[in-house]
Amino acid sequence: MDYLEICRVYGRLERTTKGLEKAEILASFLGEIRDEPELIYLLQGRLFADYDNRELGVSHQLVIRAIGRAAGISDVEVVKKFKKFGDLGKVAEAVLGEEKKQMALFSKKLSVEKVMENLRKLPTMEGAGAVEQKVGHIVELLHSASPEEAKYIVRTVLSDLKIGVGSGILRDAIVVHCFKPKDLEDKKVCVQAVQEAYDKATDFAEVFEMACSDSLEKIKLEPGKPVRVMLFPKAKDVDDAFRIVGRPAAFEYKYDGFRVMINKEGPQLDSQGHQTGQGGKIKIFTRRLEEVTKQFPEIVEYVRDYVKGASFILDAEAVGFGAETKKYTDFQAISQRIRRKYDIGKLRDELPIELVVFDVIYYDGESLIEKPFRERRKLIERIVSEEEWKIILAKQIVTEDAEEVEKFYEAALADNQEGLMGKNLNAPYKPGARIGHAVKLKPVDRDFDLVITGAEWGTGKRAGWLTSFDISCRNSSVVGGRWSVVGDLGNEDELLQIGKVSTGLKELRDEGLSFAEMTDMLEKLVVDVDGKHVKVKPEIVVSVQYQNVQKSPTYSSGFALRFPRILRLRADRGVDDVATLDEVAEEASS
Ligand code: AMP
Known about the structure:
alpha+beta; CATH 2.40.50.140; six-stranded mixed β-sheet; 19 strands; binds adenosine monophosphate
């Protein structure tokens, strides 16, 4: 297929802001790629499935160099244009347009396959000479691209297509294309089915292919491939918890660490069922599907030594504790372990963690998500040999007595934990869903996890740092306790600003999360520049404390936080995990 064809679709998507229209445009294009479902990744601005952690590793600087070289101009000139346009895609379009006019260059047609092939090689390039090789591959594509194609190649390389398509719209397009729902009710059912398939597969190519042949049920959990974790709504108090999860219920400590899904791969089999590989590999994923196995060698050891079974997927919390004090610490204390890729041995000694297992969703070749929680808990009791400060099961009581729960709640708080989880003993596991199969009980907290969508450079003594941050929530109108359907009820892929925050960060790096550290992270994500203000890719999630929520016409969410303050960076969370507009609206009315 000509790359130009897909660029035309990008163009149409870019020109409309309406979710429903976008889903329609995509739905009709999906017909063109039924035989090559992996091309769906390009519609996401990606080259691999969502579960695949390979990164292109191309910075803005590198793209600037590639554009300059392809157009035969200096990097300085490219940067000048970048300041003017605020988007390197547009810069490439403009400068290559000029160049091609002058040289009357007729390039040969660029195919989608060639674009995929060249860009998919980028993650494999490492070590000496890698930078030049990467630039060379991008330049080669830009040389044979039309100006419009160049724009989207650059944006794909920078993983920001600017076409306003997220997983919700893509899912809805698959629904429209494959199932042609006859009314809204029918659409909701199909959306649910496709979403459930996606939450297991975390791969739109696979979901698309299976949906086309009406065999979504064939999508199975597979250890080694991350799934989306089940999420939990809040309960107001113990009675409310019982009301939602039923009586009797299980109550567990809500540990203040970060979520890890631990996968042990089974032996590899060929299509005839003959064993071809050993298996037994242990992989650790965060809830944003990021693989962190290297960062946590001790988790791999504990799981290998203390958990029985040939293959499994465990849901667990990694919790920090003081090496000397043997007291639990909060998430913040160990958060740097998620991102740090060096000095791992040292960090492991300084910031030890205990693995707290609270669920299992796959065991020895069998998916357990349909099994009731009480059975899944029994299984982890059988397969995990507990060893204090290494691996334990979540502390649990099963009761119908509110007073007993209150006492347990106090004990959890006294043990430096966040509160309790109340769990329905008969409920299945629903990957990706935030439904009341379990609820969280925490003392009143006034904070939201929000994503940073923009920032502003500071002045005076704070010049050189980004010091004010635009914070956004997710738009979502929840259908049946779960997802929205684009266009009909609101677009959940959209991010809506809820304010700006400039307090909470430190001026000195060693005092905690600092302006300098935040600036380092955000600078890599800049997608648009407008004077002192930059727009950034929505990847950095922070917990923001506030005094209350007010209605406000100033921000696109229609709400504003009063006295917002950044409490901490949530390196384990992604844009899918941030607060929704519904949650914000509920706070505003309470
Ligand atoms: P929150 O982060 O406030 O939405 O609370 C949900 C998180 O609590 C989960 O994603 C887990 O990371 C964490 N958690 C801690 N202890 C447990 C537990 N016993 N069961 C389930 N989740 C837990």
